[in-house]
Each structure stands twice: as C-alpha cells, then as structure tokens.
C-alpha cells in the first residue's frame, strides 16, 4: 500500500469516527433535552389537572354548604370532577388512587397494559413524577394530592408518539448528513492528500533518475517545509555524487595518461639500450671507440631508467604508506642537501647560495631531502651556465618559509598549474636531454602534503622561477644564523 493511501485511509477512518461520535453525542443531547422538555410539559399539565380537581372538590363542598366533606363524599366529588374531564390526542387518560392503593377511577384500561403509578421520591413527596411507558410513546405522570385532608395519588398519561417519530426522523437525517459529510470530506481529503504528496512523487521520480545515472538532475525546491528540506538534501547528495563521479573520471583519465606517458618514457631508453646492445652483439668486429661510445649510451639510458623507476616508486609510496614525522633541525638538513648538490651545481657552472634559520620541523628526513633535491635539480636544469640558485629561509609566526629561486628560462604562466602533474614537461626535448622524466615536481607536491606544508610556484619567462615552501615549526633551536 502506498503512502498516500495509508494517509488517506487512516485520516478518513479518524474523520468518520470523529463525525460519528459527534453525531451520537449531539443526538443524545438533543434527545435528552427534548424528553426533558416533554416531561416538564406533562408535569405542567398534571399540575393543572390537580388544581382543577381541587377546585372541583372545593366547589362541591361549597354547594353543599359544608365546612369539610367526609372522606366518602370527597371521593365521590373527585371521581365526578375527573369523569367530566375530557381526554384528547395529548391527554389520553388518568387514574385516581386513594391512600390504601384502591383505584377510584381509571380510564386507561386498554390504553396501557400496566397502569401502576410510579412512586414519588421519598425526599420530595409532593414532587411530580413521570416515566415513559409503551415503548417510549407515552409519558405517565403521578403526583400526590390532598383533598379535604385526605391523601390521594393522581396519575395521567400523555401521548408523545409524535415526538418519538420526530426524534427518529432527526436521527435519520443526522446519519445521512454525517454520511454525506464523510463522503464529501473523503473526496476533499483524497484531493488534498494527492496535492500535498505530489512533491514527494516528484522527489521519487527525480531520485530514480539520479539512481539511473543522471547525476546532473536537480529537484525543484518549493516552500520551506520538510519536503523542501528533503529536496535540498537530495540536491546536495546528487551534487556530491556528481562531483565524486567527475573526480573519479578525472582520476581515471589521469591514470590513463600516466600509464601512456610511463610507457612512452620507458620505451625510449629501452629502445636505445636494445639498439646499441645489438650493435655490440651482432657485428663480428667492433672498434674500441665504438664499443666505448655504445657502452656509454647504454649506461646513460640505464641510469635514466633507474632514475625513472626510483622516482615512480617514491611517488607511489609517499601517499600510500604511513610516514612518521619527527622534529629535525631544518638548518642541518638544508646544509646536507647543499653539500651534496654543490659539486653537481659546479659541474653545470652554477653558484649555490644557502641561508636557513635555526628551527625544528616535523619531517621524515630522507623524504624532506628528496623534496629539496628535486626542486634544486629542476632549478639547475632550467638555469644557464654562470648563473646562480638561491635557497633562503625565514620564520613567519608558527611557520618557516623556504624560498628556492633560479634565474633561468622560466615557465609560461598558463603552464604553471600543470607542471605538478606526473610526466608533464613544458619543454620535453630539453627535459629529456637533461635526463628528466617530468616526475620531480609531482613527487615534491606529494612530499609537501605529507609534511602538512604547502608549495607555491611563481615564474616569469626569461627571468626565472621562485618556489615557495611553507611548513609548521615544531620548536626553536637557539643557534646563530650563518650562511652555508
């Protein structure tokens, strides 16, 4: 059963129950009020009849000129007065009983099966008492009456059949009205339920399309109720899924490009190695000069492959393995890197200038050295002979900033955002000639992230490149600053 059906049926059941209960209570209240009114009317008529009876007995005594009638005369006078009272459609008969319970007059025989008068309440012996008889069609009233110091009970029967028919007709009309109201309410409720839950159906259809792959699907948000909140949440979910899918697609594309570039980078040195190995192996006689030349090419290409494989291994393990960071003196690490890089720089005709503040940085020492090696090696490859490279550091609050600057060929502005991608090279022929494979800066990006740092690159073509590294300081060492 669908949600709108459950809501409709449960609300309809509650509405019918409430309407029926209200109708029953209203009918009962109306019935009790009408019967009470009819009883009061009968009691009023009964008191009128009793007053007429007293007046008739007094009139009879006065006609006889007596001070008081005897008991027998009183009975005769009372019976004579009541006998002269005519009945009609409302007053259908009366009964007179003396204090011994003997009926002096009863013209109800044949009208009621039981003409026994109800007993008046003991605490109100003179109150008018009435009760329903004959299935509720007749009200039988009884009241005590004193005639010439003698006690009697006067009863009278009044026809209320019309009132009962009116009540039954009113009950029927109420039931029909209640049913009509329920049917009308059911129709309006059905319409209202479908209208209010229509956004939920739209949400369901949109969710189904999103589940089928239409991640660009967005739900229309109307109002500020719970359904609008749900639509907002689903839109955010769809956006998150779409972003994740696009990210995965981008990763897949980058991986595809990465594998293609890797295959291409490995193919070139392997081809050279195989080619020159064949030149050494196939001819019968190879001169010493050619053998040395071929062996040098094979050695250089093998070194290139070793460098490529080493950087690939380092790149894949940096982000996937757990790295333990421990406080280390930054100046000491920088000086070690500078010491090993100076001979290489000297062979390229480049001067290296280093200055570093005394502070501690949480690091993996070897990875951090690899970071500096790669950046400085890239700067070397981009620089001309008789040029210089500066590595300077300074403390800024809780951070240490390392600036590595070269004065080489520079990088075009539109290429800066791409150079940290694996295998990306601005000038491929020049980079290969220098022994590069486009992995250095990608590796630097990973190592910087592992050390909770950041790397920024600024460059101007023809003027050089500035690499800015920022790392949180773990503590200070009090050492005098000096230039390495």
CATH hierarchy: architecture of the largest domain: 2-Layer Sandwich
Q: CA-to-CA gap between the ends?
A: 81 Å
Count of domains: 3
CATH third-tier fold name of the largest domain:
Beta-Lactamase
Give the low-confidence spans.
428-438, 476-484
What is the residue-mean pLDDT, rounded to a whole number? 78
Q: How large, in whole angstroms, is the Cα Rg?
A: 57 Å
Structural class: alpha+beta
Give me the count of strands.
12
Please write the CATH class name of the largest domain.
Alpha Beta
Order of SSEs, N→C? HHEEEEEHHHEHEEHEEHHEE
Assign a percent range to the helix content. 40-55%
- Percent of residues in beta strands? 15-25%
Number of helices: 9
Largest sheet: 7 strands, mixed
Which term fits the overall shape?
rod-shaped
């Amino acid at each position: 059963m669908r949600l709108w059906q459950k809501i409709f049926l449960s609300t309809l059941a509650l509405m019918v129950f409430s309407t029926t209960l209200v109708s029953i209570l209203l009918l009962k209240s109306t019935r009790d009020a009408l019967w009470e009114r009819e009883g009061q009317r009968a009691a009023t008529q009964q008191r009128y009849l009793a007053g007429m009876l007293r007046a008739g007995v007094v009139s009879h005594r006065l006609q006889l000129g007596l001070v008081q009638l005897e008991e027998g005369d009183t009975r005769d006078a009372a019976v004579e007065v009541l006998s002269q009272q005519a009945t009609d459609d409302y007053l259908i008969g009366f009964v007179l009983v003396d204090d011994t319970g003997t009926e002096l007059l009863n013209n109800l025989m044949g009208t009621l099966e039981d003409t026994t008068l109800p007993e008046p309440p003991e605490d109100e012996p003179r109150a008018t008492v009435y009760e329903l008889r004959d299935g509720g069609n007749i009200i039988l009233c009884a009241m005590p009456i004193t005639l010439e110091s003698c006690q009697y009970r006067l009863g009278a029967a009044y026809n209320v059949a019309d009132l009962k028919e009116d009540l039954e007709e009113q009950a029927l009309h109420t039931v029909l009205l209640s049913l009509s109201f329920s049917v009308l309410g059911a129709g309006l409720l059905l319409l209202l339920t479908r209208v209010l839950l229509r956004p939920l159906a739209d949400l369901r259809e949109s969710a189904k399309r999103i589940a089928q792959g239409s991640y660009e699907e967005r739900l229309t948000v109307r109002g500020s109720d719970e359904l609008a909140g749900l639509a907002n949440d689903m839109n955010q979910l769809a956006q998150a899924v779409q972003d994740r899918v696009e990210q995965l697609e981008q990763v897949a594309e980058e991986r595809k490009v990465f594998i293609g570039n890797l295959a291409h980078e490995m193919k070139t040195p392997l081809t050279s190695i195989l080619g020159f190995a064949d030149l050494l192996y196939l001819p019968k006689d190879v001169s010493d000069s050619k053998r040395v030349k071929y062996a040098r090419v094979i050695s250089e290409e093998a070194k290139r492959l070793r460098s490529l494989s080493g950087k690939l291994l380092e790149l894949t393990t940096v982000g996937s393995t757990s790295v333990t960071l421990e406080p280390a003196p930054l100046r000491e690490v920088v000086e070690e890197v500078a010491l090993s890089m100076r001979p290489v720089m000297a062979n390229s005709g480049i001067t290296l200038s280093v200055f570093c503040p005394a502070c501690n940085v949480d690091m993996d020492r070897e990875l951090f050295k690899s970071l500096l090696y790669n950046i400085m090696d890239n700067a070397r490859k981009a620089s001309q002979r008789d040029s210089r490279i500066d590595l300077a550091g300074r403390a800024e609050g809780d951070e240490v900033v390392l600036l590595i600057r070269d004065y080489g060929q520079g990088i075009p502005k539109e290429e800066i955002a791409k150079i940290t991608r694996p295998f990306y090279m601005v000038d491929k022929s020049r980079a290969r000639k220098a022994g590069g494979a486009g992995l250095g800066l990608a590796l630097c990006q990973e190592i910087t992230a592992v050390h909770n740092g950041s790397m920024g690159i600024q460059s101007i073509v023809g003027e050089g490149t500035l690499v800015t590294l920022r790392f949180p300081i773990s503590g200070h060492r009090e050492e005098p600053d000096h230039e390495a």
